[in-house]
Amino acid sequence: MLQWRETCTVLALMVSAVFATTCRAEDGIYVGAEKCKNCHSAASKGDPFGKWMGEKHSKAFAVLSSDEAKKTAKAKGIDDPTKAADCLKCHVTAFEAPAAMKHKKFDVTLGVQCETCHGPGSKHVEARLKDEGDDDAAATKLVELPKGEIIGMPTAETCFKCHNKESPNYVPFAFNKFLPTIAHLDPRKKRPADYLEKIPADSKDDPKAVAPAKK
């Protein structure tokens, strides 16, 4: 019995160590789009928060309550899509992340938020507030973000995790065709005028994909 208890204790410590390492590897915790809004809704920065608010990603959780979503879920044997893991894993940010990696005010009902593409934002928020403080000039100054603070541009792999044929409402998807429709580039950064048009194709792109019509 003593040996069994010792074995369980060792296993528990190993699990705790792995969990702690995972948290560190994730580079911070999820803080939620409302926290991003504080610094990323200015027109001078391209108003990325406002751009996101006007997109389907921000309504990804809300749409699960629609009659169409309920019909789709029923066909898959799901009673309530707002509570089903098969739906939530792609309709909310950080669904599969442990609670320890989410700020206490993190709101899953805001759908697919900034951190789905840019990663956990706590380190970014902490670093920017520390550097900028109450200095308005510093808050609008373009800075070169240190590696590991936040993900500047998502990869195709990030999108393919949900935009794939496992989705019951799959639409042929190609990263280089869809990204320009949701891109919110910072106008302070100097880029070629055709920057988004020259995003290379990805091996996982669906050849049937057609670029969404511009609004």
Brief descriptors of the model:
mainly alpha, 215 residues, 10 helices, 40% helix, Flavocytochrome C3, Chain A, domain 2, 0% strand, globular
Task: Walk me through the structure.
The chain is mainly α and 215 residues long. The chain has a single domain, classed as Flavocytochrome C3, Chain A, domain 2. It has helices at residues 2-25, 33-37, 48-53, 67-75, 85-91, 114-118, 122-132, 136-140, 156-160, 175-182.
In short:
It contains ten helices and no strands. It is an all-alpha fold and 215 residues long. The longest helix is centred in the first third of the chain and has 24 residues, at 2-25.
Number of structurally distinct domains:
1
* 3D shape: globular
User: Low-confidence spans: pLDDT under 50, at least 5 residues?
Assistant: 1-26
The helix content, as a percent range, equals 25-40%
**What separation lies between the terminal Cα atoms?**
68 Å
In CATH terms, what is the fold-level topology?
Flavocytochrome C3, Chain A, domain 2
- Radius of gyration from CA coordinates: 20 Å
Tell me the series of helices and strands, N- to C-terminal. HHHHHHHHHH
Tally of helical segments: 10
* Quaternary structure of the protein: single chain
What is the CATH architecture assignment? Orthogonal Bundle
Share of β-strand residues: under 5%
Largest sheet: none
| Backbone structural class | mainly alpha
Q: What is the count of β-strands?
A: 0
CATH class category label: Mainly Alpha
Report the mean per-residue pLDDT as an integer: 86
